[in-house]
Amino acid sequence: MALKTEHFVLNLGPLHPSTHGVFRLRATLDGEVIVDIEPVLGYLHRGIEKLAEGCTYKQNIPFTDRLDYLASMSNNLPYVMAVEKLAEITVPERAEYLRVIMVELQRIVSHLIAVGTFVQDLGAMGTPLLYMFREREKILDLFEMVCGQRLTYNYMRFGGVSHDIPDEFLPALAKFVDRMPGFIDEYDQLLAENEILLARTKGVGILPKDLAINISASGPVLRASGVKWDIRKADPYSVYDRFEFDIPTGSISDAYDRYRVRIEEMRQCVRILRQAMEQLPKGKVLTEVPLKLRPPAGEVYAHIEAPKGELGFYLVSDNSDKPYRFHIRAPALINLTALRQMLIGWKLADAIIVFGSIDICLGEVDR
Amino acid sequence: MAILSASPNSFSQLAVLSSDWPGGFWLHWVFFTVIILAFVLNTALIFIWLERRALGRLQVRLGPNRVGPFGLLQPIADVLKLLTKEDMIPAKGDKLVFWLAPLVAFVPVLMIFAVIPFQSGALLADLNIGILYVVAISSVAAVGVFMAGWASNNKYSLIGAMRDVAMLISYEIPIVLSIVGVVLITGSLSLTEIVGAQQNIPFILLQPLGFLIFFLGSLAESNRTPFDLVEADSELVAGYHIEYSGMKFATLFLAEYAEVIAMSALMTTLFLGGWQGPLLPPIIWFLTKVFAVFLLIVWIRSTIPRLRIDQVMAFAWKFLLPLALINLLITSLQIVFWPEASPWLIVFLNLVAMAVLVLSWSRFFRLGGERIEV
Fold first, then answer.
1. Running DSSP on this structure, what letter comes out for residue A219?
2. Could you give the number of structural domains in chain B?
């Protein structure tokens, strides 16, 4: 005689410790097993794309900071690149190198938080997260040196960056770059071969290669599925073609692979930072650009490999001082689309870690 | 085994001590009730402080250090805050059960301490079925947890409560089986006699596998990492006590810490030789061992992630239960066929057996649950 059971609808979020912001998962559970799951978005919608149509090009740079607020530098870059392409502004070489340095530091910050919160979601009581915040603080100190801010930097400008770096920046960066590989080894000691972490993440939340390509996933989520696609190599922007680095990829595309890819990418970031520091030229950091920039009519798309994936800005200009259309291709939103396929049939606890392994930032998902 | 012959003499001395001190049946009763209450409440406060400080140090931060010297008064400040908080009851909850649950969770845990000897003769009641009583009474606390989860009328707390009951049923069995090994060697269920039997050699050495199983099992019973799925703050927000506030929450929290104290004290009594030790006074030895066990638990909590519910169940039924049975078999064989063997030889044999068993079992045993077709 089978017991009559009922399904059980559980609202995970919008206020829940593991939704990394205000995100809601409506899960239908059969006991602990997920029968159906539906992501509900839009709790942090601020209408940035529409707001941006009412502001001048320069006024829009701070808006981009507020997209993925854990990686502001990486948000500035594709926007200024798009406007530079549209208005045909050249960027001094020193500024290009500074941009690369900032964006790579930002990638380390973003991955530290991604891995830290992912392990926190697994239930490790804060220790890995706080170890990672220790290094994040050092990078934030570096950012504070160059632009005075610790979260929303607003550092990049059309034609360069807002300030040149102060004298104490390069020695501090060199010190950080020397010590960072040791810290990454420390995280590996704590996590990489932890039996429980392996048992919880291996084979969980698999995103097959073809599905990943079909939903146009990007960033570590796509690379963990075994696709060697990195815009820094596939469509080199800025001065990335001058650096040597590898693209780490995963094999079985589970949550563990996504975590490993992020750790390996941090090592590659350190490699790029070393080369960028060696090659850093002297000179100007900002080209003179009129305050009220009126780019010629036309459209443009510029994209970079942001920490979370391909971040692109599509701009349409009608030769006024404000963009006619301002569209953002946010990687986190697109990476989320396969969540349902990845979760059905797994347990409630898996939903949390798979969600964490995608690494989203609600500021970017909802815009 | 040789230790068996040494034990009976020491017990007769203990029995004399316990009836003489502090004298009079009712006085004894009142005296030890007060002692136990004071011990549990104060140790819980110290444990909370110690856990937060130790976690802070392990996590490269300072931990609470503002209230009092080294933040020692922080738990007291927390208790005062909780006392003055608004006491809320969910509108659609079951009010009577909601009100009763913290008590049902706390009182049985407190009752465990009635039979735990703080030092020779210093215990409320030297029951001759002591350990059986502990096993029976400690399971009642889970009823309180389930009542809390059910009465809150909250889905998270219901899931948490369900997990707690499932874990209790699974982990009670290996725990009891690992205790049976100790009881077999001692030949008694009384906790005083179990401590007395460890005069020469603590049972952690004679029963290493038993200790391991008991330790892991009691982590699960008291909902500590890696078995803290009942609270699972990243999944269930707070689990069964999500709707509780004020003093009711404080009581549930206290029940949880009291359970950890009880488990540490039980481990001390059953496996670490209880109050016995050289030089220092017995009560200091007892407290030292309890705190050492607790710090080990905190260390584990700060280091490793949480298991999933099916993995926790698999761990109990596929790993702990068979090993507990094998441990029981080995112990009985040693007692029946080899009663005169030197205890140190037995220690060596059991350590080897534990290493071989744990390593080989983990080979053909997989934790990972598979995806379920729905």
1. T
2. 1
Report the b/e string of B187-206 with b at 16+ CB within 10 A.
ebbbbbbbbbbbeebbbbbb
| Res A21: pLDDT | 78
pLDDT of B366 reads 67
Asked, for residue B165, whether it belongs to a domain, the answer is: yes
Backbone phi and psi for residue A148, each to the nearest 5 degrees, phi listed first: 80, -5
* CB A112 within 8 Å of CB A71: no
Who among A10, A18, A197 is closest to B234 (CB)? A18
Q: Do A349 and B309 touch (CB under 8 A)?
A: yes
With a cut of 70, list the residues of chain A below it in pLDDT. Answer: 1
Q: How far is CA B228 from the centre of its chain?
A: 14
B48 lies in some domain: no
pLDDT value at residue B37: 87
User: CA–CA distance from B273 to each of B5, B117, B216, B282, B286 (Å)?
Assistant: 17, 11, 19, 11, 9
Question: What is the distance in angstroms between the Cα of B373 and the nearest Cα belonging to chain A?
Answer: 6
Does B31 fall in a domain? no
Task: Please report the ipTM that was assigned to this predicted complex.
Answer: 0.80
Structure-token pair, residue B4: 């068996």
**Taking residues B207-212, what's their average pLDDT?**
89
Give the span between the Cα atoms of A252 and A257, in whole angstroms.
7
Of B61, B233, B310, the CB nearest to A347: B310
For range B271-286, the mean pLDDT:
83
Q: Distance (Å, rounded) from C-alpha B17 to C-alpha B195?
A: 15
Across the strands, what pairs with A298? A317
Q: What is the CA radius of gyration of chain B?
A: 21
Residues listed for chain A: 367
- How high is the pLDDT of residue A313? 92
> Residue B3's pLDDT band (boundaries 50, 70, 90)?
very low
- How many angstroms separate the CA atoms of A95 and A84, rounded? 13
Residues from chain B contacting residue A350 (CB–CB below 8 Å): 308
Looking at residue A83, its amino acid is V
Q: Give me the pLDDT at residue B34, please.
A: 86
Q: Are B172 and B296 in contact (CB under 8 A)?
A: no
Region B304-319 average pLDDT: 85
Selected for mutation to probe chain A from B306, B361, B365 (highest A CB count within 10 Å) is B306
Radius of gyration of chain A (CA): 21
Q: In sequence order, what are the beta bridge partners of A156?
A: A161
The length of chain B, given as a count of residues: 374
Q: Does A324 touch chain B (CB under 8 A)?
A: no
pLDDT value for B92: 85
Domain of B267 in residue numbering reads as 86-371
What is the C-alpha separation between A232 and A229, in angstroms, rounded?
A: 9
Judge whether A16 is closer than 8 Å to chain B, CB to CB: yes
- Alpha-carbon gap, residue A140 to A113, rounded angstroms: 13
Q: Is residue B67 part of a domain?
A: no
| B304 with A32: Cβ contact below 8 A | no
Residue A172: Cβ within 10 Å count: 15
Neighbours of A117 (CB within 10 A): 20
Task: Tell the burial category of A288 from Cβ atoms under 10 Å away from its Cβ (0-12, 13-18, 19+).
Answer: exposed
pLDDT digits (tens, 9 = 90+) for A46-104: 888 888 888 888 888 888 888 888 888 899 999 999 999 888 888 898 999 999 999 99
What residues are paired with A24 via a beta bridge?
A40
- Tens of pLDDT, residue by residue over B221-278, are 888 878 888 777 777 887 888 888 888 888 888 888 888 899 898 898 888 888 887 8
Confidence of residue B23 (pLDDT cuts 50, 70, 90): low
